[in-house]
């Protein structure tokens, strides 16, 4: 594997190999000195055309735990302002001598183009509404640790603005690779117009599915993407799709709650639910570091087994 | 000691233990390779809700001298903009696996709340008008190196906008812990309404105290905090409270001059005074790194004596 | 050598010594683990009053390859906003304990003043319209690797906004130190009014010199610096001075193409030319890391031969 651009490129065995490696790195993170020299002398650069401190810090932490050097290219303060093309920006960064480039871009497909231009490994850290594969891998990894090695038969509801969410797409694909059955739960205006044969079902009423699911995966409502045309009011949306304590009480007692963050506590997901015993929200963040270590190591490590 | 939130929490012995440890680290900084592996594998994150390159760099330098990994969470470019609460921001950062969080926040008490929420050690790097304990420790450390182990009987004037200054409060508390006698020197409008039994005296005329003090500690005038109601003009303020060369000449020859920075040379403090033989301004900065090393090591070091 | 402030300070032997050292570091960069411990325990800080991700990343990469610690002082988010002077900013940074300061400033001569104030080594990373010596050294290094140890007799055209370009000045000086003959090619309004006895010739028509040159060195047009008074339209400028594929075809087959970046592909320099077999554009970037390693090591290394 040279790049990690989308979950769509990975079959079940590839996903499982990455998650197995993540298990090993999660053990490393529990050590007193949670570092390994696996990527000593390697350089990992983050190139973010959209702000995301959370994802960027997670990747940088992962790289440092592997003893790689890290560089951060903040597009706001860069040559990009002087009219430089994406091609020249990435070629210039590559020419400084890097091994992996973590790319977030507002345009779907941008990381794929970058991968065609450079010899370094490219990791998609979110491209437009397309994919966010490491988020999907950490979600699958987190759920697998609680459900056993397989997600066969696990019923997952992904709730929220599916249409605009790269997380919804990537996480759905990754969950289904491992055998889960995914339902998108959203008003019709927030479901993609074409589901392109994706292995999902669709529900418009959260209350219809609450009692049957093993996982409630809540998406952040991206208010900046919700036009007047799509939803009468945000309040109405929350009334129908917010994961309130009352709704959580109608789920099976062992239903897990997940969220990719950042969360809007209250209307989107109740505080008692976020902080409740079935919430995996913090584990997702911790596991994100282990999963990104596994991805980095699989792409630019020298092979062999680490840790 | 788990956190460093305020000087008010520390008794004289606790302050002296930190300053003794700072002495050891100042020796480390004088070495050809000024590093020790004391915090190898530890991660220190800075979370600054107010800009302060100076304080942030000092903490990051201290962490690197101890071989810790550092991460910087710039709030301006973060999830905070997407509506995330302080609670979720710090819980998320903690979940990535950190050992200490250095917090600056515009709200008094914010670091205390953070300390209640997370297991990592919290260091207050300035909270509203409340406290800035590492500044106070570096001030006390700097003065102690010139006055001997005790500040008993040392007379200190803290001059300027006392009301709005967390430095004034923390440094006064720390100096008095070590035996110094502190006078706040400011117009009545810039003195806190309630001094709450603080062990200080107040003077409204700088010229009254000039000849008696052992230390003139000048505060930065924070113009953004001076409304029309408080002071007729900045010019009048400087005329009465600026540490001019003429005023400095009326101090005892061995009176020290200190300033927490950044300084406004000229009206606030004369260039000849800043650069004069009794100025401790640069030493304060250098000592700040040693003191922050001592704080970090005391909070998250594994115990035992270092360096 | 204590500082690197301008090429004007360096004679041919000094330039050649730096380029010889750069050769050694370029070999280091080709290793599997491209790092040496030459500057372990040293701290290199970048202080940029003008944005330049490209140059800053190159210096930071060079410092990390030498195992130095790096700090970055972003002026936009700094004490400077609070009214601190350049003197106090650099004195404060120095007091934290640094070995080298890489300074970019909009005012010509600023790095020279910094060098008078502090004991640490100062490297000019671009000062106003004055000099950008490491760019010049990497340009000379890149050309020397293709032309043999000497540039004697090599004919170079530097094309574009000479008047406003510190790169034009530094690179011209460095090329001529090594024996090259430089021609400035620009409309009269973009040539400095006084050439001060510089060893250059001037041409106003690119097509006149195309067939005779060994190197076409294209400058970025800094649109923000082009007033209406200087040029009727940017389009007319590009028509006369853009390095089109058609013009490139009229150069000798072995004429090299160089550009300091960032480039505006298309009007300024044609895509076929940038990506053609005689383009040294990417090599310039790669070599920049090796040259900056050599500069850092020469200034603050402990002497002796490295790598």
Explain the overall architecture.
The structure is a homotrimer of 307-residue chains. The first copy, chain A, folds into 2 domains: 141 residues, Rossmann fold (3-Layer(aba) Sandwich); 148 residues, 3-Layer(aba) Sandwich (Rossmann fold). Chain A contains 11 helices and 9 strands. Chain A has a 5-stranded parallel β-sheet with strand order 7-6-5-8-9. In chain A, strands 2-1-3-4 form a 4-stranded parallel β-sheet, sandwiched between helices. In chain A, strand 3, helix 4 and strand 4 form a beta-alpha-beta unit. The two termini of chain A are 20 Å apart. Chains in contact: A-B, A-C, B-C. At the A-B interface, helix 2 and helix 11 of A face strand 2 and helix 3 of B.
Q: What are its keywords?
A:
2 domains, 4-stranded parallel beta sheet, Rossmann fold, 307 residues, homotrimer
| CATH hierarchy class name of the largest domain in chain A | Alpha Beta
The overall number of domains of chain A is 2
Strand arrangement within the widest β-sheet of chain A reads 7-6-5-8-9
Taking pLDDT < 50 over at least 5 consecutive residues as the criterion, the unreliable ranges of chain A are none
The total count of strands of chain A amounts to: 9
Count of helical regions of chain A: 11
Show the largest interface. A-B, 31 and 24 residues
| Sheet having the most strands of chain A | 5 strands, parallel
């Amino acid at each position: 594997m040279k790049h990690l651009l989308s979950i769509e490129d990975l079959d079940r065995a590839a996903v499982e190999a990455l998650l197995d490696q993540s298990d090993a790195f999660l053990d490393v993170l529990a050590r007193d000195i949670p570092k390994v020299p696996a990527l000593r002398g390697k350089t990992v650069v983050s190139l973010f055309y959209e702000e995301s401190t959370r994802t960027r810090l997670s990747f940088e932490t992962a790289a440092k735990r592997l003893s790689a050097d890290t560089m951060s290219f903040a597009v706001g303060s860069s040559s990009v302002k002087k009219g430089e093309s994406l091609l020249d920006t990435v070629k210039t960064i590559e020419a400084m001598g890097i091994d992996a480039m973590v790319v977030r871009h507002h345009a779907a497909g941008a990381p794929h183009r970058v991968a065609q231009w450079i010899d370094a490994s490219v990791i998609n850290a979110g491209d437009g509404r397309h994919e966010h594969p490491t988020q999907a891998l950490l979600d699958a990894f987190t759920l697998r640790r609680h459900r056993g090695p397989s997600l066969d038969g696990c019923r997952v509801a992904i709730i929220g603005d599916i249409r605009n969410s790269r997380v919804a797409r990537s996480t759905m694909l990754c969950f289904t690779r491992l055998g889960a059955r995914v339902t998108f739960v959203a008003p019709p205006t927030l479901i993609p117009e074409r589901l392109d044969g994706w292995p999902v079902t669709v529900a418009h009423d959260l209350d219809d599915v609450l009692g049957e699911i093993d996982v409630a995966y809540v998406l952040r409502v991206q208010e900046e993407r919700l036009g007047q045309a799509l939803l009468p009011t945000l309040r109405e949306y929350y009334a129908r799709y917010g994961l309130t304590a009352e709704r959580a009480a109608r789920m099976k007692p062992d239903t897990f709650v997940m969220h990719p963050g950042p969360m809007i506590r209250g209307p989107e997901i109740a505080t008692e639910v976020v902080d409740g015993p079935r919430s995996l929200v913090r584990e997702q963040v911790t596991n994100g570091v282990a999963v990104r270590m596994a991805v980095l190591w699989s792409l630019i490590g020298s092979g062999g087994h680490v840790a």
